[in-house]
Amino acid sequence: MASGDDSPIFEDDESPPYSLEKMTDLVAVWDVALSDGVHKIEFEHGTTSGKRVVYVDGKEEIRKDWMFKLVGRETFYVGAAKTKATINIDAISGFAYEYTLEINGKSLKKYMENRSKTTNTWILHMDGENFRIVLGKKDTMDVWCNGKKLETAGEFVDDGTETHFSLGNHDCYIKAVSSGKRKEGIIHTLIVDNREIPEIAS
Hints:
This protein has 2 domains: 26-110, Lipocalin (Beta Barrel), CATH 2.40.128; 120-197, Lipocalin. 8% of the residues lie in helices and 54% in strands. It has 2 helices and 17 strands. Residues 1-23 have low confidence and may be disordered. The chain has 202 residues and is mainly beta.
């Protein structure tokens, strides 16, 4: 830049992945675990420009510019099941704002607490791949693997039920048996090739 030319700091092929404007307006990031995987939600709020931008997994879902009302809410959908999400924007004092995320009408914390009561999650590594298996709502017995709903076959057995499915050449099933204790309810166990897979905390 010695000759006073107007060349940019970055050549076209070297431009930064995020603009400086985006970095200064990014005010909140949430990771939300749904049956089809963990989704990243990012929210930009330009309090001087009135800009609101919502990204889900890096993809722009909502963009509003020149919003004169700086508080309010933005509603959008996340994941394969199109789960309803809402970002609430509240003024807490002067020019300070609070951003809260609701999933299906519940605070993210309450949603995740409820979800851990209604879903089971297992992570396993086989054939050089990682698999995230989720037993969705326990009343429907939907089974998801790496974001895709699997074809399953239910079967009644002496001590409960088994929900069978395949992962490649591997035979898998989720066994549901009563714990015998009212508070614990039904215990779900993932079996792959006759081997029990430990559950992770969801």
